[in-house]
Each structure stands twice: as structure tokens, then as C-alpha cells.
Amino acid sequence: MKVLVINCGSSSLKYQVLQMEDETLLCKGLVERIGIEGSVLKHEKIGQDKFVLEVPMKDHKDAIGHVLDAIVDAEHGIAASMAEIEAVGHRVVHAGEKYASSVKVTEAVMAALEECTELAPLHNPPNILGIRACQELMPETPMVAVFDTAFHQTMPAESYIYAIPYEYYEQYKVRRYGFHGTSHKYVSERAAAMLGKPLEETKIITCHLGNGASVAAVNGGKCVDTSMGFTPLEGLVMGTRSGDMDPAIVTFIAQKENLSNADMNNVLNKKSGILGISGISSDFRDVEAAAEEGNYRAQLAEKVFAHKVRGYIGSYFAELNGCDAIVFTAGVGENDKAMRATICSNMEALGVKIDLEKNDVRGKETVISADDSKVKVLLIPTNEELMIARDTVALANA
Ligand code: AMP
């Protein structure tokens, strides 16, 4: 069974086609600048050079049309006809409290996603557009929605309730939701396999450290806490997001700088984090290079980032009453050995001892803790697309 996985952003979309009998990746690609001058599709049949198509794409339907053409193209494609694509899995950011797992797309599901748009005004609309476009282009093909928030729906109320008037939760659904759920779920399941323990008997702290970053406490395969909240702004310091801070800063800076709500939102989401502290870049590679040359603010940005991750690890350690493994994943977690080492340094009291030689590795599933480390430290490349494809297979024909 071939499954198409689609992840739609506002002006871009990523896709993969997987052959699910052996879970192999057949092709993948990216469309950028949808609805903007300079639209471009970059398609890669695995094992072949990239195929680049530069044509105007006025909307998501147009873009997905070109993706489908590339998938069945005689030279670059991986299917003789669209009939071979038996199901489509869509990444959807926010399902509010509606869904705690993936669902087959129906009109009732679409209505629920529309309802959640208020909670994710930047993310859900393009996700919905992507599903609608696929439904028009492939009306007979079953579609499945896989949510970033779903894995975190097992959090107990004490993890998700904010200490503000309770009516705001009841009236406006203001609570912590958490994101990156598909990634946290995937790596926690892989971690259990690597530990050789049943998932139900594991306690795992998963660190998804990419441009967006979050940590989750996973007890017996179920999320009990995570660092992102009502939106992805809460928690760790990120590429351009502030993460946790005193909420009083918002009104203080807004007043000082005469900023509107939208301006302030922009500062906290786009101009803060690693970029804000370093003044150099949101990309850890650039910041690390500057830090090595002695740039104080670059060094500080790295230290603040690591400090925050360590804080969450410690907190989740207490919440879980110990843990079997700490997992690193996503762009920084998979590639940045120096950051992993900094985060795990001086944690012997918790039973965490990283092995610097084993840690000298990137992008590969492996143990990076010392043999006598009570808590295993694992590097596990995430694979959200595979998780989406698996759920799609399970639900498409249900
Ligand atoms: P993601 O959001 O998971 O795609 O992660 C993207 C981020 O990973 C980039 O913005 C970089 O900051 C970081 N990254 C990727 N490769 C490296 C590397 N070799 N060393 C340090 N950071 C990296």
C-alpha cells in the first residue's frame, strides 16, 4: 500500500510517499512560495537527483496538483497512476480537546478542525486547505488527519490547567495542549524498543530540539506533561520564540515600545529565542560558530537554551519519580553533540552520565550514555511522516 503524507504550511508544503509493506520511503518533496511569485516544487525520487519545477502555483490545490503529477511522472514518479496511492495522511496541528488520536477525515472532522482554528490561527487554516485540495483532486481516496496535539491529551489536569480564572478554560478553552506530539510518541516508542522493555513499563523524557523545541514526560507510553502550552510559544527557548517568561513582561514592553498585540506576538514568536539573545541568527550552527569566535551573546544564547532544557529534564525527573531514558531528537538534538553534552553535563546525581566518545555521532539511532549510566541517554532521529503513514494505514479502510 502506497501512502501519501502531506504537511501543509501557509505558503509551503512538504510531502512523502511511503510503501507501507516495508515502510520504505519512495519519494519526498517540498513546494515553496505557494500563492507568491516564484513558486517552486522540489521533488526527489529516492536514489535519483532532485527534479525542480518552477511554475506559478496560485493556491494549495494548484500546488498539490503539481505534486500528484510529479508522483506519477514517467521519469521522476513512483507510481504508474494515482490509483496506486491508496490513502493520504495529513499532519494537522491543533485538534483542541476533540481528538486524542488520529481520525479518518469526514465532514464532521472537518467541522471540528474549523472550530479549532481559533486556537491555531496560523497553522490549522493551511492544514484544512491541504485536506480540501486533496479531497477535490482525489475524491475517492480515504484521508486521515494526524494531530500534533493528540499525544498530549493524556496529560492530567494538574499539568494542563493554568492558574488563571477557571472560567477562561471553560469559556475559551485556554489550557495547555502541547505540540510535536507525533514526534514525542515516535521517539518514546523507539526508546522502549531500544531499552528492550515493554512501553507500558517505561518512563522516558523526550527532548525534541529543533527550530521549535519541546520536552515531554512520557510514563508508560502516555504523555503526562510537556513544555509547550496553549500555543507553541511556551516552554523552552527556541530559534525565534521566547519560551517561558514572566507574563508581566508582555504589557511592560508593549507599553515602553508602543507595540500592538500583533506586534508583541511577532516579537515573542519571531524575534526572540536564540535569535533575540544572540542578535545573530535563529540557526544553532551560526550561533555556535559565533560563540566559538568568542561572541558573548552567542555564548549566552547557547547557555540559556541548555539551562532551560536541563530545568525541564529535572522537573520531569521529579514528576516521573525517576526515568529510564532521556531522548534527543530533531535538528539540534540529532546533530549537535556539543549541545547534548552541555545539557547532560553535571547530572550524575540524577544517574545521567554521557559518554563523550559515543556522543560523537549525528542523525543515527544510538545510545550515547556511559555503560554505567543509570539513565540511558538516547539519540533517536524522529520520523513524523512514518507515524502519520502508519496511522493512515490503520484508519484509512476502517
Ligand atoms: P528542525 O526544526 O528539527 O528541522 O531543526 C532545525 C534546526 O536544527 C536548525 O535551525 C539548526 O538550528 C539545527 N541544526 C541542524 N543541523 C545542525 C547541526 N549540525 N548543528 C547544530 N544545529 C543544527
Taking all residues together, what is the mean pLDDT? 96
* Number of E-state strands: 14
Radius of gyration (CA) equals: 21 Å
In the sheet with the most strands, the strands line up as 5-4-3-2-1-6-8-7
CATH arch. level architecture of the largest domain: 2-Layer Sandwich
CATH superfamily of the largest domain: ATPase, nucleotide binding domain
For the report, how would you describe the main beta sheet? 8 strands, mixed
Total domain count:
2
Give, in order, the helices and strands.
EEEEEHEEHHEHHHEEEHHHHHEHHEEH
Bound molecules: adenosine monophosphate
Fold-level CATH name of the largest domain: Nucleotidyltransferase, domain 5
- Unreliable sequence segments: none
The dominant shape is: globular
The helix content, as a percent range, equals 25-40%
Find the structural class using helix and strand composition. Answer: alpha/beta
Which band does the percent of strand residues land in? 15-25%
The CATH class label of the largest domain is: Alpha Beta
What is the count of DSSP helices, taking H or I runs of 4+ residues? 14
N-to-C CA distance: 15 Å
Please characterize this protein's 3D structure.
It is a single chain. The chain has 398 residues and is an alpha/beta fold. The chain has 14 helices and 14 strands. It has helices at residues 60-71, 107-115, 124-137, 157-160, 166-172, 181-195, 248-257, 261-270, 273-278, 284-292, 296-320, 330-335, 337-344, 384-396; strands at residues 2-8, 13-19, 24-32, 40-45, 51-53, 85-92, 103-104, 143-147, 203-209, 213-219, 222-226, 325-329, 366-367, 376-379. An 8-stranded mixed beta sheet has the order 5-4-3-2-1-6-8-7, with helices on both faces. Strands 11-10-9-12-14-13 form a 6-stranded mixed beta sheet, with helices on both faces. The longest helix has 25 residues, at 296-320. The protein starts with a strand and ends with a helix. The mean pLDDT is 96. The structure holds adenosine monophosphate. Adenosine monophosphate binds at residues 210-212, 239, 283-285, 330-332, 335-336.
